[in-house]
Amino acid sequence: MLSNRVQRIKPSPTLGLSVRVNQLKAQGRDIINLGLGEPDFDTPQPIKEAGIKAINEGYTKYTAVEGLLNLRKAVVEKFKRENHLAYTVDQVLISLGSKQGIYNLAQAILNDGDEAIIPAPYWVSYLDIVLLAGGVPVTLSTDIKNHFKITPQQLSDAITPKTKLLILNSPNNPSGMMYSKQELMALGEVLKKHPSIVIASDDMYEHIQWTGENFCNILNACPALSSRALVFNGVSKTYAMTGWRIGYCAGPKEIITAMTNIQSQSTSSANAMAQMAAESALQGSQDCVEAMRRAYQKRHDFLVKALNEIPGVNCLASSGSFYIFPDFSEFMTRHQDIKDDLALAEYFLMKANVAVIPGSAFGVPNCMRISFVVEIDKLGEAVDRIKQLI
To answer: Which of 233, 229, 149 is nearest to 188 (CA)?
Structure first.
């Protein structure tokens, strides 16, 4: 009954964990969930008030598929102000979260058999988005030794005549690592030799970083790619607005138009009042962003130190996001009854009541994605539970 296409798709492991955690909590289990992929902060009050005002003023109808003009203007201004990138409003598409934007891109440019290069670790949806478009995901392996980043040589070796798309995510979910400008320039030199490859820069965690350096994406590092590169972002992580479901992207007009046409035959426009709230977020005070960033950094520093005190755990300090990606390879060598990261995550959940997501879900076995979207006292309790268990 089901199509071959949909049978290749796997349920999201992150959403699956959330369902399981809720089931265990309903049974009375005290689970500390470090598998979440969304901020624990509430949406800042001025942004909520903008959404409420929009409802009260009657912004409850359909909008243009590509999004409200004023929001697209705010996105253009944001890219100019913060990223030094110049776009016009007809190069911007508002979608139901950045995920839909990336899905639209895959549908717009991939033919059956086209290859999409995806560095691992990767966000769990990338592979299935490519598969749904008839494409072939080509994953590039990394590990803790190279800070979970691909090299120019790896990229060059992976490119074939069928390569159509490269997806870069920095700061990365799940590793938290961020490519430097020099690293992106080196990747850009490879891409300049292959003009048929479209580049998707997923910048969702742009504002959650603590390197001390200005954020840089592939277009900042290599402007020559602008005719075939798209930048994806949204308000979900930066402004704690995951449930509002507003993403945005900008890129070449021809591709944006195709993506808009696809969206017109699926969801049509994003929610009108959420768009108004997103406009307020982009144009209002950014003090809330810095306050959340500082809190994440404090939690990050605490958690990295605490985990590295556990024998057999190797945890790199991340550059940003609200994740760390510790390697448990040595730990599992010492505990041979735990065969892999899937078994280890199950062990932590059932014995320590701590939920984490195995690295296999992101293409890198023997690691764990650990989110620090709970207060520090809860992080400390989670680490204590794991220490007591082992």
So the answer is: 229
Reading the block at residue 283, the tokens are: 């144009």
DSSP string over 161-185: TTEEEEEEESS-TTT-----HHHHH
Residues of the chain with CATH 3.90.1150.10: 4-42+287-389
How confident is residue 204, by pLDDT bands cut at 50, 70 and 90? very high
15-18: which pairs have CB atoms within 8 A and are 24 or more residues apart? 17/355, 17/357
Cis peptide before 121 (omega within 30 of 0): yes
| pLDDT at residue number 166 | 99
Averaged confidence pLDDT in the chain:
96
Task: For residues 315 and 328, give the distance between their C-alpha atoms in angstroms, rounded to a whole number.
Answer: 9
Structure tokens that stand for 46 in this block: 């001025």
Name residue 277's beta-bridge partners: none
Q: In one letter, which amino acid is 281?
A: A
Distance, in Å, from the CA atom of 189 to the CA atom of 225, rounded to the nearest integer, reads 10
**Region 18-31: what's the mean pLDDT?**
89
* Amino acid letter, 40: D
Q: H/E element holding 233?
A: strand 229-234
59-283 CATH = 3.40.640.10
- Radius of gyration, CA atoms only, the chain: 21
**Separation of alpha carbons 192 and 16, rounded Å:** 39
d(CA 328, CA 340) in angstroms, rounded, equals 9
Classify strands 323-324 and 32-33 as parallel, antiparallel or unpaired: unpaired
What is d(CA 32, CA 328) in angstroms, rounded to the nearest whole number? 20
Structural contact between residues 24 and 345, judged by C-beta atoms closer than 8 angstroms = no
Answer whether residue 200 shows pLDDT above 90: yes
Report the distance separating Cα 103 and Cα 367, nearest Å. Answer: 27
- pLDDT per residue over 141-180, tens digit each? 999 999 999 999 999 999 999 999 999 999 999 999 999 9
Architecture of the domain delimited by 4-42+287-389: Alpha-Beta Complex (3.90)
- To which residue do tokens 């308000």 refer? 235
Give the model confidence (pLDDT) of 104-135 as tens digits: 999 999 999 999 999 999 999 999 999 999 99
**Hey, what are 12's tokens?**
């999201």
In one-letter notation, the amino acid at residue 316 is L
Domain with CATH 3.40.640.10 in the chain: 59-283
What are residue 209's DSSP bridge partners? 320
